Amino acid sequence: MNIPFLNIPSFYEQNKVEIDRLFSEILSGGRYILGPNVKAFENEFSQYHQVPFSLGLASGTDALLLALRTCGIGAGDEVIVPAFTFISTASTVAYAGAKPVFADIDPSTFNLTEKTVCAALTRKTKAVIAVHLYGNPVDLGSLMKLCREKKLILIEDVAQALGAEYNGKKVGTFGKAGCYSFYPTKNLGAAGDGGMVITADKKVYSKLFQLRDHGQSTKYRFETLGYNSRLDELQAGLLRLKLKQLDAWVASRRKSASVYSQLLADISGVQCPVSLPESRHAYNLYTIRARKRDKLREFLQEKGIGTAVHYPRPLHIQKAFKDIGIKTGKLPEAEKACKEVLSLPLYPGIPGEHIEIVASAIRDFYVGVK
Ligand SMILES: Cc1ncc(COP(=O)(O)O)c(C=O)c1O
Question: Rounded to whole angstroms, what are the CA distances from 43 to 36, 179, 287, 311?
């Protein structure tokens, strides 16, 4: 038996003729950088989110870095980030010249909360990056209130949460900037790297526009030191095709997640994902908490079931951040989550039979270890 964790090539296999035709048109057109597909994709992405501005970039990491720089974050500033996330959320703060300050997470949603952010606040705090981890929205109501009171900039890391909603509105549209990744495993995955920033602020957009293309305002007129961070035409063309199916894919992810949750609900070693009543999870990942996680993972692997751990080590105790000097034990919920989380196979159109096999293998494991 082989139950893969993901099925990345399926979109190409199902749409080969259309994708081959599109790529051949772009390749024979000769306009590979910042061409019509990038512009059209940005417009379509803005429409999808009901925001005025979207800007295509080379990756989700660059989306965060350029958003931070555009918001004026730099030396002497502190930015609060969760300790339990992918490294880019924090590394980009350091690349911008500021200090990432790690905050703990809520044990049920795995996200930052107003309370954990408060515990990390200092006089130097200038911004907060809210990561909607796994596709599960942060409690934006209370966090935005805190940011308003303390005059903090809110940046959303939406890399895993494209299509998720809070109070009926797409996440990514609440902060000063929403930062997306099109890494192939994301809800909208490119055939390579890509990213996007969305914003309602024209000044933010204009600065980003220059920063992504070497700081140019017009050709060879450099207003600031920028980056080479452009989404390319092939990726934009492919992402335009995929965007048309995004809502159906997110619906399929939600349906499969709810089947998992029904099948796993009464297993005492397992805690299924929890979202807030205001939220609609987009399930980039279906991640459970599992007793004896590593043993369970091995057991599933022996049965040919692919799983993943997002993430095995919190950021505050990673060597890369050793200069920040936070000791093990300081952010207990993030540390505990790293020992217990397990992501199960999930992608749009995953066969129902696979979900049943995975759930029943998990049940067998816990019967065996009782
Ligand atoms: C939460 C989070 N933030 C940022 C990123 C960075 O995105 P990219 O890989 O496109 O640079 C990722 C990608 O895995 C992510 O999961």
Answer: 11, 16, 32, 34
Backbone angles phi, psi at 260, to 5 degrees: -55, -50
CATH number corresponding to 246-369: 3.90.1150.10
Give, using CA atoms, the residue closest to atom 7 of ligand 1: 60
- C-alpha 266 – ligand 1 centre gap (Å): 33
Please say whether the beta carbons of 264 and 258 come within 8 A: no
Tens digits of residue pLDDT in 153-189: 999 999 999 999 999 999 999 999 999 999 999 999 9
User: pTM of the entire structure?
Assistant: 0.98
The mean per-residue pLDDT over the stretch 14-38 comes to 97
For a ligand 1 pocket test, name from 59, 61, 230, 239 the mutation site with the most ligand atoms within 8 angstroms of its C-beta: 61
Domain coordinates in residue numbering, the chain: 10-103+110-243, 246-369
Q: Which two tokens stand for residue 97?
A: 């010249």
